[in-house]
C-alpha cells in the first residue's frame, strides 16, 4: 500500500463523553471537505506506524517509511505539517483537540502493557466473563505477512455507546470498588505501547437489542494522512434479526465512508473478511487485534514469540537477563519468578492477581496460566497488621501483610509485592536502600487499597499515605525475627559480638593467675552468646555443621534474651508491689496520725470541762 499523502474525505464519529452514561451521544457527521474540518471532540487513537513483519526480519519498508517510524521510542519524531482549524457548528463552543503525538507520549510510561488489556477482561467477570485468550496470530498488511496480538474475552461486550466511550480519553464508567480500571486511559496507552494500530470487534446485548461494532485506532492512518486531531472510524450493526443491519446515524454515505477507511487501514480489505471476525466471539464478548507491532533499535520486533511457544517475552529484557546469567553463573537466581516476570508474560500474568479466580482463566497461547501467590511459598511466615492514618471522615481500614523468607536459594531476592484491588502494582519492591543487606531474602505480600495507583498501574502516587506505608514496611523488615533460622546475621550482630569479645578480654585480664570466670554468667544482658570457633582450618568445616552450630548459638541467644525479659518483668512486678506497700503504709500513717489528733482533742475538752 503506498503511503497516504493527501487528506481524504471521510465521515467520522463525533464523540461527546461525560461521566454519566445518559450524557454520551453519538452523532455521525458528513465530512464535505477534509478530515481536518470535522474532528472528534473526544479524541482517541492507537499506536504508531510500523508495518508487520516476520518474527526476525521485517519486510522492506514502504515508500516514505523509515526504521525510526517503526520504533516505539522514535515514532513520535515526525514533522507536523500545517494544520487547519475545523469549522464550528452553529452555536458550538471552541474545544481543545488532542494531537496524535499525545497518544504516543502518553504511552511511554508503560512497560508491561499487557496488564491493562487483561484488567478489562477481569473487570468483565461481573458480566459473566470466564476467560481471556492472549495469542499471536499471523496477518497480512501491505501484502507482507507479520505477527499480531489477539485478545479475546467472553464478557458482556460493548454496545455502540460503550465502544465510543472506550475509545475516548479519560472516560471511565467503572465506579465499583472491585473494578480495576478507573482512569479511562489504559486501553489507549496499552495498545499504543504494543503496536501502532488496533482494531476492536465487540458484540453485546443491551435493553433487548443485540449489536456488533467495529472501531479502528490507527496511528499509521493518523500519521500518514497528516492528521492534527485523533480520528477514529467506527461502524455498527443491529443483529437482533436474522441479518446484520447497518446502524445509520445520519446518511448511508457516512457509514460507507467509515467502512471504507477501516477496510483500507486494517488487515481486512473485504467487508466479508471483516464480519468473519465476529464468528469466534459468540453472542457477547470483545476481540482486540493489535498489529504493526513495534520494532527495537535493531529493527527486530520488541516481542519475542519464538523463544517459547507457550509464552510471549520482551526480547531486550530477555537478552539482558541471559547476559547477566552468563556473568553471574547463577541459574537459580535467573529462574526465580522475581526475575522472570521482567520479560515473561506467563510469569507476570501468574502473579498479576492476588486472589485466585473461581471461574475465570487467562489462556496464554493456548495454555492456561497457573496463578501463583508467593505468600504460600514463604518460610516462617507471619502476618503483620497495619492501620493507616487515613484522612478525617474516611473509613478506617487495616492492611494485613504476610511476611517471611523465600524458600529458594538466592538471598538477594527480596521486597514487597503490593497489590491494589487484587491487581499487582509494585512487584518485589525493595524498601531498603540499594546496597543494604538488611532484609535479604525477606518477601512480603499486601493489598493496599487505601493508596492510589499511577495511571499506568506500575507504581503508586507518592502521597503522604504512601510515604507512611513505606516507612512501616521498612520497620517490618527490621522487625522480622528468626533470621538465624535462615543462616542470616540479625541487625547489630557484628557490633554485639565485638562488644562481647572485648568484655571477655577485660574480665580475663582482671582475674588472678590461673583464675577462671564464665563471662556469660557475668553478662546476663547480652543477646549474643560466646562464639567459639573450632580448631583447625575453617575450610574443613562442613556447611551443614556451620549452619547447625549457628542455629544452636542463636537459640541460646534467644533463651538468654527471654530469661532477661522474664527477670525484668519480675523486677518490675516487685517494684510495683513495693510501691503499693509504700502507699499503703503512708495511708495507714495518715490514719493513725488523724486518730491521735482526735484523741488529744477529746482529752483536752474533758480537762477543760472538769476545771
Total number of helical segments? 15
Decide which structural class fits the backbone: alpha+beta
Molecular shape? elongated
DSSP strand count: 18
Compute the separation of the termini in Å: 138 Å
Note poorly predicted spans.
1-57, 180-184, 515-540
Instruction: Supply Rg.
Output: 35 Å
How would you write the strand order of the largest sheet? 8-7-6-5-9-4-3-12-13
The average pLDDT score comes to: 76
Q: Helical content, roughly?
A: 25-40%
Largest sheet: 9 strands, mixed
Strand content: 15-25%
Please describe what this structure looks like.
32% of the residues lie in helices and 18% in strands. With 611 residues, it is of the alpha+beta class. Strands 8-7-6-5-9-4-3-12-13 form a nine-stranded mixed β-sheet. Helix 2 crosses helix 4 (186-194). The longest helix is centred in the last third of the chain and has 68 residues, at 543-610. It is elongated. Residues 1-57, 180-184 and 515-540 have low confidence and may be disordered.
Report a brief summary of the structure.
Its cofactor is Mn(2+). By secondary structure, this protein is α+β, with helices and mostly antiparallel strands.
Descriptive terms for the model:
single chain, DNA repair, nine-stranded mixed beta sheet, five-stranded mixed beta sheet, ATP-binding
List the helices and strands and how they pair.
Layout: E1 12-16, E2 25-29, H1 100-106, H2 114-123, E3 131-141, E4 144-153, H3 160-166, H4 186-194, E5 195-206, E6 209-218, H5 219-224, E7 234-238, E8 245-246, H6 252-265, H7 271-276, E9 285-293, E10 303-304, E11 313-314, H8 315-328, H9 331-335, H10 337-340, H11 345-351, E12 361-364, E13 367-368, E14 379-386, E15 399-405, E16 415-420, E17 423-429, E18 442-447, H12 464-479, H13 493-510, H14 519-522, H15 543-610
Parallel strand pairs: 3-12, 16-18
Antiparallel strand pairs: 1-2, 3-4, 4-9, 5-6, 5-9, 6-7, 7-8, 10-11, 12-13, 14-15, 15-18, 16-17
Helix pairs in contact: 2-4
Amino acid at each position: 500500500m503506498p503511503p497516504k499523502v493527501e487528506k481524504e474525505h471521510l465521515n467520522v464519529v463525533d464523540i461527546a463523553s461525560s461521566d454519566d452514561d445518559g450524557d454520551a451521544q453519538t452523532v455521525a457527521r458528513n465530512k464535505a471537505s477534509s478530515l481536518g474540518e470535522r474532528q472528534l471532540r473526544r479524541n482517541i487513537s492507537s499506536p504508531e506506524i510500523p508495518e508487520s513483519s516476520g518474527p526476525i526480519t521485517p519486510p522492506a519498508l514502504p515508500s516514505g517509511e523509515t526504521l525510526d517510524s517503526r520504533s516505539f521510542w522514535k515514532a513520535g519524531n515526525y514533522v507536523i505539517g500545517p494544520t487547519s482549524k475545523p469549522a464550528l457548528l452553529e452555536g458550538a463552543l471552541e474545544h481543545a483537540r488532542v494531537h496524535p503525538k499525545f497518544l504516543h507520549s502518553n504511552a511511554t510510561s508503560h512497560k508491561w502493557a499487557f496488564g491493562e488489556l487483561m484488567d478489562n477482561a477481569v473487570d468483565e467477570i461481573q458480566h459473566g466473563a470466564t476467560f481471556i485468550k492472549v495469542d499471536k496470530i499471523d496477518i497480512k498488511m501491505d501484502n507482507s505477512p507479520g505477527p499480531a496480538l489477539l485478545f479475546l474475552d467472553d464478557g458482556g461486550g460493548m454496545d455502540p455507546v460503550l465502544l465510543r466511550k472506550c475509545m475516548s480519553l479519560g472516560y471511565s464508567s467503572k465506579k465499583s470498588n472491585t473494578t480495576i480500571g478507573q482512569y479511562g486511559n489504559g486501553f489507549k496507552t496499552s495498545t499504543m505501547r504494543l503496536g501502532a494500530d488496533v482494531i476492536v470487534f465487540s458484540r453485546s446485548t443491551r435493553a433487548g437489542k443485540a449489536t456488533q461494532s467495529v472501531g479502528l485506532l490507527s496511528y499509521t492512518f493518523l500519521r500518514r494522512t497528516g492528521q492534527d486531531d485523533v480520528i477514529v472510524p467506527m461502524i455498527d450493526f443491529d443483529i437482533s434479526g436474522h441479518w446484520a443491519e447497518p446502524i445509520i446515524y445520519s446518511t448511508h454515505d457516512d457509514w460507507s465512508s467509515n467502512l471504507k477507511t477501516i477496510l483500507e487501514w486494517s488487515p481486512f480489505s473485504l467487508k466479508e473478511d471483516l464480519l468473519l471476525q465476529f464468528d469466534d466471539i459468540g453472542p457477547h464478548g470483545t476481540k482486540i487485534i493489535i498489529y504493526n507491532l513495534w520494532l527495537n533499535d535493531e529493527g527486530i520486533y520488541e516481542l519475542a514469540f519464538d523463544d517459547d511457544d507457550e509464552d510471549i517475552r520482551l526480547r531486550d529484557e530477555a537478552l539482558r537477563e541471559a547476559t547477566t546469567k552468563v556473568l553471574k553463573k547463577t541459574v537459580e537466581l535467573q529462574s526465580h519468578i522475581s526475575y522472570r516476570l521482567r520479560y515473561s508474560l506467563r510469569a507476570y500474568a501468574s502473579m498479576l492477581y492476588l486472589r485466585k479466580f473461581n471461574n475465570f482463566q487467562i489462556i496464554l497461547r493456548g495454555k492456561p496460566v497457573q496463578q501463583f501467590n508467593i505468600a504460600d511459598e514463604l518460610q516462617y511466615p507471619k502476618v503483620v497488621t497495619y492501620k493507616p492514618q487515613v484522612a478525617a471522615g474516611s473509613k478506617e481500614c487495616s492492611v494485613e501483610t504476610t511476611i517471611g523468607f523465600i524458600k529458594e536459594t538466592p538471598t538477594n531476592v527480596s521486597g514487597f509485592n503490593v497489590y491494589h484491588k487484587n491487581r499487582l502494582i509494585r512487584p518485589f519492591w525493595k524498601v531498603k536502600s540499594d546496597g543494604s543487606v538488611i532484609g535479604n531474602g525477606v518477601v512480603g505480600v499486601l493489598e493496599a487499597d487505601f493508596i492510589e495507583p499511577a495511571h499506568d498501574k506500575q507504581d503508586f502516587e507518592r502521597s503522604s499515605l504512601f510515604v507512611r506505608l513505606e516507612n512501616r514496611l521498612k520497620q517490618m523488615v527490621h522487625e522480622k525475627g528468626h533470621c538465624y533460622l535462615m543462616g542470616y546475621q540479625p541487625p547489630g550482630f557484628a557490633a554485639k559480638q565485638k562488644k562481647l569479645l572485648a568484655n571477655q578480654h577485660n574480665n580475663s585480664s582482671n582475674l588472678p593467675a590461673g583464675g577462671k570466670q564464665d563471662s556469660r554468667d557475668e553478662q546476663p544482658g547480652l543477646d549474643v552468646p560466646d562464639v567459639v570457633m573450632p580448631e583447625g582450618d575453617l575450610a574443613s568445616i562442613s556447611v551443614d555443621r556451620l549452619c547447625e552450630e549457628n542455629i544452636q548459638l542463636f537459640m541460646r541467644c534467644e533463651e538468654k534474651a527471654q530469661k532477661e525479659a522474664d527477670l525484668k518483668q519480675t523486677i518490675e512486678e516487685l517494684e510495683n508491689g513495693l510501691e503499693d506497700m509504700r502507699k499503703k503504709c503512708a495511708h495507714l500513717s495518715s490514719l493513725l496520725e488523724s486518730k491521735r489528733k482526735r484523741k488529744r482533742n477529746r482529752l483536752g475538752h474533758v480537762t477543760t470541762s472538769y476545771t
